[in-house]
Amino acid sequence: MCMVIFAPHNEECKNHFHLLFAIFAFATCGGYSGGLRLSVDCVNKTESNLSIDIAFAYPFRLHQVTFEVPTCEGKERQKLALIGDSSSSAEFFVTVAVFAFLYSLAATVVYIFFQNKYRENNRGPLIDFIVTVVFSFLWLVGSSAWAKGLSVFGFLNFILWAGNIWFVFKETGWHSSGQRYLSDPMEKHSSSYNQGGYNQDSYGSSSGYSQQASLGPSSDEFGQQPTGPTSFTNQI
């Protein structure tokens, strides 16, 4: 069971959520259809039309949706169109969702059946990290462009992909090389400190030994001290 979404070594579960939310994104937007109902009430009730149905759907080229309304001047009718064109942002949003779905599906297959190839030469994690960053950016752009459509799943996909960046980055060689770079100076510092302490101890022991050796007079000097007064007495 995929209970933890962002587990560091649970790539299959994370891609399951990517697949799920990508499906929700392009299904809710690409399969959306709606409608309006207008009412035109004229003074002459026979010319009124209280039920004018207008249908629209993805990709929301509203300026191409036309309908006819009575002019309240006899039987004449006027052809009108809705205002707005949201096709570019809607199509971009759906395109990002489709490609995110396809990549998540391919990544899931690689994680399950080609795990050794994925980690070989650190190429798989690097590609996965770069693609995850790109899709996070695309989800942000697409969701912002389609924000007027109140598409909640776009921002949820951005949060999901952006939150996955750190865990994909930990699988790359950039993260491991950074850890080695931080650990090497600390090891060198500790080894130099231990070496300095050893030299200091050895130096202290040797200097102490030399000082003890030089404290007392030598046997020759001790023997020569009484000869001074003896020779002085003989001269007197």
Automatic annotation (TrEMBL):
Its main location: membrane. The chain crosses the membrane at residues 92-114, 126-146, 152-169. The keyword Membrane applies. The keyword Mitochondrion does not apply. Residues 215-236 have a biased composition (Polar residues). Keywords: Glycoprotein, Membrane, Transmembrane, Transmembrane helix. It is found in: Membrane. One of its GO terms (cellular component) is synaptic vesicle membrane. It comes from the Eukaryota. Residues 195-214 have a biased composition (Low complexity). Residues 192-236 are annotated as: Disordered. Residues 6-173 form the MARVEL domain. Pfam families: MARVEL. It is a multi-pass membrane protein. Belongs to the synaptophysin/synaptobrevin family. This is Synaptoporin. It comes from Mandrillus leucophaeus.
